[in-house]
Structure formats: C-alpha cells, structure tokens
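Batch manifest, entry 17 of 40.
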Amino acid sequence: MSLPVERQPLHVPPMEEVAAVLQSAVRKNFAEGTVTVVECPDLTKKPYCLGAAGLCGSPRLADVGGVPYLIPLVQKDKLYDVKDLAKSVELPDSFVVGAGAGPHAYVGVNSELIAHVVTGDKGLNESRIAKIDAAAKCELQKLPQNQTGCALMLNMFASEGRRGKVLRVWAKKRTGETNLVSCLRQALESHYGEKPVGLGGTFRLVNGSAKCHVMPEFSTVPLTCDDDVNKWLHFFDFPAPMMFMSTLVSKDPGLDLRVEHSHGYGQDYGGHYHYDTTPDTVEYEAFYNIAEYMFRIDRPQVTHNVGRD
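Output type: structure tokens
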C-alpha cells in the first residue's frame, strides 16, 4: 500500500550566507567555534566510517510518521522500509541518514534507530538500533544488510551520497544553555523567519559526554504528557566518541514536523541526543548540507506535541 506523501520546497539560501548565520550563533554558545563551507571529506574514511562519500546531490529531508503513532499508545501497524521511503522522496538510489524508531517486528522490542542506509544497486545497510536489555542497560545492535525497516517515525536526510560543498561546524567548550543542534536551528529560525531552511547530515561528539535516551518496551498505559514520557524513557550519559545522524528544519511550514532529531552511537551504546553534559570539555564536528525539499510521509491525522524533545 502506498503511503500518502506531501512535498514542499524549502528555502535554499547561499551556503556562505548560512555559514555566516550559524557561525554567529555558535560563537555565542561556545567558547570556540567556526562554521565554514568546505569540500566534504570522504565520509567513508575514519573517523566517520559512513556508507557514502558525501552528502551532496539532490539533498532532501523527510518526516515519516510521527510521535503520535507512539504516544499516548503505540500503533504497531505503522511499519516502514527505508528503501521504500527513498522512492517516496523521489530518490530511489540514495544515501539516507536519520533518526527514528527501530523495526520492532525484527528486534522484538521497541528501540531507537540510527538510520544509515545506501539504497539501490549499491545497497549497504550500516544502521544500528539501541534498545534496553533485561538488566535495564543500553544494548547496541547492528542491523543485518537485509533489515532496512523502521517503525512509527523517522526523520531522514537523503542525497546521492556524492562529495561537494557542505557546511562544516566545529564547536568547543559550551558556554551557553543550548545544545549544538538547537543552537543551529534557532539561529536559522531567527534569521530566516517564516522561510523554512532545512539541514541534514552528521555530527561527531569528539570529546565530552552527551545525555541520550533509549526507549524501553512500549508503554501499556497511556503517556499523556511530557512528564509521563520522561518517566518512561531511560536516560544515559554516554562518552565520546559518538557519531550522530541529524536533521533539522528552522520552521515547520504547516506539515506537523519534528523540527530537530538526532540519534547516534558509540562503541557499544547509542540513543537519542538531548545535549552534552560536559560543557567545559565538549567538542563537536559536524557536516550538514542544505535540503531543497521537505517530504511529509504518512502524516498522523490526530496529532499533539507530547514527546518531541
């Protein structure tokens, strides 16, 4: 069954202009920081080890499903496949990174998905899931090549995976109250107002630690407010190095979007990024590209704003 798809062009300012907007914000929030336009490094090499060399070529964002399919109670029939979603965003041969919920039908329980897939003839699946084990600890699991499923929600960035010009963000020693991703998104919102600007890509936690959550098994009682959600989630303080897949859009243009979402993993742990917990020692390096379109796939008909942090 085909999924309902809405497509909307995003505002695409000159990359140098976006870099200047972001650099001003980064320098207000971190003791050191630069945002520059660079030739994307080969992301298949260390320390990135991603499945494609770059983030360029027909860059686009998609917001699939949503938190209302999880909260207040789960709708387990909301199942997706990244390969099909690549076709839905009109880029069947693409490099997809993103943050969502894992394929519970395969994993056996609810989980966090760190999506990392090359679709098409060069198919490669480097996705991980993070779940809560029987001892209430985080367990990281790499998905097999043929398991490109997800469930409930996914915020994804898709491109042709080619190298080209991208935004490099480097920030060290946080002096403000805002996490890296929110710092970038809020700067774009402040500068561009009602014109939605979207970014997608990846960032590394080079030094320090980050607060992340991992969803446990689906709640059997309705989660009706953020406090309910926070009591249900499991929170962890994970050390660097970590690699995050990240999307953000400065403004929701009426599509009921999750405006920022980042999931990442370290050696044997992973989850949903909230903020760094070591402001004096934290260091980030990020590479983002500017998206040309936003696709809204299988938008919930009944919505709310609970659980979107």
